[in-house]
Amino acid sequence: MEQVACLQIISQFLEYPEQPLWDMKADVEEAIDSLIFLSPAQKDALYAFYESLLENDVLDAQSEYTELFDRGRSLSLLLFEHVHGESRDRGQAMVDLMNQYQQAGLEIDSKELPDFLPLYLEYLSVQGRDKAVEGLKDIAPILALLGARLKERNSLYSLLFDVLLSFSNSGVKASMLAKEVESEDRDDTPQALDAVWEEEQVKFMGEEGCASAQQVAHQKRFSGSVQPQYINIDSLSGDKS
What we know:
By secondary structure, the chain is mainly α. About 60% of the residues lie in helices and about 0% in strands.
């Protein structure tokens, strides 16, 4: 039950920050303190993240969250974004995951997609320890990718991903992807976001049958400007650190 309770806490920390996290400081700290079987390092990581969050007011924390997770795709908390991108396989994966939630009796808020990481963690938290560990192991490469990118940006959100990876017993660590992430093009800069937007506009016009030769050339120009943010989930296994 220890890990299950911790998943619930981390799920809340990865949600869009809201005032209750500030108002319930004593309760949240008590909940962390009650996780007596966490290692000192794991507990310190949760405390460090929470204390850092509370150093900002709610609006500043919300702005930081949006800048991290809602600009570009590299830090998207939608799990399948990092595996399927916009392919049709993503739709079927969504349906399969939704079925798992329904079988577990989990009520899904219509505003969230089923592969939203905090929602997935909430699901795992009601599955029991063994299934929760297995569920984390399934997404360990994605957790490592996100953790490595957050470390690259000096974000304390990376601490939460370290704890999740340690629970997964997968042997996968964010450090395995540090060099790869360091060489990535950032996809959250104004230039990168503009390039993607312009490419999508040209693609849409092409699908409508209105693309000129100049527009097609424009699309090709930007097709390699932002490094793909997908990961092969089979590319990491075992403890290679």
